[in-house]
Amino acid sequence: MDIQLEKYKLVEWLMSLKDESIISKIKHMKNNLSTASDWSSDISETEKLLIEAGLKDIEEGNTFTHEQVMKEINEAYGI
User: Fold this and answer.
1) Are residues 50 and 79 in the same domain?
2) Which residues form the domain of 77?
């Protein structure tokens, strides 16, 4: 995809718009994108600690393969 060409096409389309409600929606979307925060600022400290603990487990090799988990579920529940 040629990003410059796509932007040019969008600008052309935007310039041709006459419907104020569409322009308002685009403006609202732009404002939301420019003020959107990083998702990590929207989670609790507990969630951050749990993520950090999970990453530490991965670094230390404290993980299970999909096959291991499925085998344990199968043995426990006969699935």
Assistant:
1) yes
2) 43-79
Q: Are 62 and 79 in a shared domain? A: yes
The whole-chain average pLDDT of the chain stands at: 90
Task: Quote the number of domains for the chain.
Answer: 2
This prediction has a pTM of: 0.44
Whether 53 and 78 map to the same domain: the answer is yes
Q: Are 2 and 10 in contact (CB under 8 A)?
A: no
Please determine, for residue 76, whether its predicted confidence score (pLDDT) is greater than 90.
yes
d(CA 52, CA 40) in angstroms, rounded, equals: 12
- Average pLDDT (68-74) is 95
Q: Determine contact, residues 22/34, Cβ cutoff 8 Å.
A: no
pLDDT tens string 8-44 = 999 999 999 999 999 999 999 888 876 656 777 788 9
Cα end-to-end distance, the chain, whole Å: 46
